[in-house]
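Problem 12. The chain below contains 215 residues. Write out its predicted structure in token notation.
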Amino acid sequence: GPLSELVKERGIKVHIYDHHPFREGDIRGEVEKIESVGATATIFTEILKNRKLHPTPMEATILVLGIYEETGCLLYPSTTERDLLAVAYLLKRGANLNIAASFLKMDLSREELDILNALIQSSQELVIQGVRIKIAKASREQYFGDAAPLAHRMMEMEDLDAVVVLLGMEGKILLVARSKVPELDVARVMAEFGGGGHPTAASATVKEASLEVVE
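Solution.
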């Protein structure tokens, strides 16, 4: 996007904080703090704690919300001990879980339920070297938001080892992959499509291709 030009300019310093490992072609920064945790908000929480820059109760609430959102309320397989310790520290600093809960979307909307039903109807199960994988696809003409919760719902409903969701929209295909077994590193799978992420949670975007070809 438009920020890509800024990165090339002299005098612009880039600082990167992330919980996804670097891959080829990524922007590099003068400061790079990449940690294997469930949420980037955990990294910021640790920095504040170590520097004794205690967050206000509202700041602590925002950071808790970030951790909960990225770790599925500490339930995603990518969650680490550090994420739990960060939440414990933030609660000690006055984070308000009632406020955080009001922003976390737990129930699926009617549109999400409709898409989830389409994914389930289209899904095909593969068993590769003992690993149960489901591949599901659906399409919508208009932009659809976060597909990650749908992938997790499918995992929960059918007790799968892994799931790959293909969602076509606005001329592109969003791929969301989840795995709960060490034998399948979905970040490596998504790298084949120009994406990436964690071994247990990854995604990619493919342009100018059909759902059937990508599947």
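Discussion. The beta strands are 15-18, 31-34, 124-128, 131-140, 162-169, 172-179, 196-197, 201-207. Students who got a different answer should revisit the alignment rule from Section 12.3.
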